[in-house]
Amino acid sequence: MAKKPSVKKATGKLGILLPGMGAVATTVIAGVHAVNAGKSQPIGSLTQMGRLRIGKRTGGTKKPLIKEVVPIQDLKKVVFGGWDLFDDNVYEAASHAQVLDQNLLDSLKRPLSKIKPMKAVFNKNYVKRLDGKHVKRGKTKMALAKQIMKDIENFKKDNKCNRVVMVWCGSTEIYIEESAVHQTVASLEKGMKENHKDIAPSMLYAYAAIKMGIPYANGAPNLSCDVPALVELAKETGSPIAGKDFKTGQTLMKTILAPGLKARALGIEGWFSTNILGNRDGAVLDDPDNFKTKEVSKMGVLDQILEPKLYPELYKDLYHKVRINYYPPRGDAKEGWDNIDIRGWLNYPMQIKVDFLCRDSILAAPIVLDLALFLDLAKRADMSGIQEWLSFYLKSPQAGKGLQPEHDIFKQLAKLENTLRHMVGEDLINHLGLDYYEN
């Protein structure tokens, strides 16, 4: 058995701070309150419902709950806070989002009404389709980041939290490429003081959290913490980080289907994907500059999984198209439609049609919870920097310098599970199945 690493216990309260308290964030918060009140179940959350194989098959395999293997924070000792450019409390914001049943929200009105957002760092230049007034003022981006840090300190003190994590749940910002200002902590801080245009609001939240040694995850395709400066800072301050872009609807299906088609050596001629959704995210992505950020995130998935350079006969000429359409009547009930043209034996053509009528925030909520709880676990295990084992939850996973991110959801899950085994000194599982390995 491997040497057991040291993982501190999950004592006291954990504060989960969510920049962007719209549909996703309020669905998470209301959901946790509903679970704690015994009104529903945390379906979709590995930290709450997932099981982990421990031991060899020949020794009477055990499959306890993940939270029985590693010290996950108790949901009853979690408190929520966050920032938003609208001043609605969580009950009001959740009612407006129309994701959850109003009767459920009404039954939770008292605790949800008490959670009010702090003023957000917001700049319309980065999200043109939104316009809120509940925003911070500051002469420089560094001054705004320091205001965020003060908010965190006050929240932790007011709620008597032992630890805090942050998960970005805000909107997709305009497309920004990594540049010189993002290369070092010094260049980033200088850029913040000089209001550099390539430093978007999400990066200020990431900087504030990481500077304070707080774990941070990015649920949108923005650069946010995915720049060398913040990776460097995360190592310096012992902060686990993960990003980017929650893997929910259509991309979730791609990372399930594409590995299966590749495993059977089936060719793919084309993959056409289109979405319709009508929530705040849909309105934001209706702007071409914001859509480009999302498009880059969604487009890289197939290329990494299928490896067309290694399999030119199967995937070299694959035509991949992604579209997102804002359609207000649909609200949060997103529809992702895929047409896949595939080739089988002797090049005979076939087709696969997928029509995923999903609920964006319902799929995202357990991801937010798991990222928060797993990042808190990583912090207590003294793990810092990029947490590639959390790629399982992300559409455009952050990877180490010079490394390609892994998109295959089954490989991602295997890495996540083995990381958890490693944390508590259990043998890793490789599925060789040979008698002399007995696993």
What does this structure look like?
The protein is an alpha/beta fold and 439 residues long. The chain folds into two domains: 14-246 and 361-423, NAD(P)-binding Rossmann-like Domain (Rossmann fold), CATH 3.40.50.720; 250-357, 2-Layer Sandwich (Dihydrodipicolinate Reductase, domain 2), CATH 3.30.360.10. It has 16 helices and eleven strands. The chain has helices spanning 23-36, 46-49, 66-69, 90-97, 102-107, 109-113, 141-158, 185-193, 201-211, 228-237, 250-263, 280-285, 288-306, 312-315, 360-380, 409-423, and strands spanning 14-19, 78-84, 118-119, 163-168, 216-218, 240-243, 267-277, 319-326, 335-343, 349-357, 385-386. The strands form two sheets. It has a seven-stranded parallel sheet with strand order 3-2-1-4-5-6-11, with helices on both faces. The longest helix is centred in the last third of the chain and has 21 residues, at 360-380. The two termini are 13 Å apart. The mean pLDDT is 93.
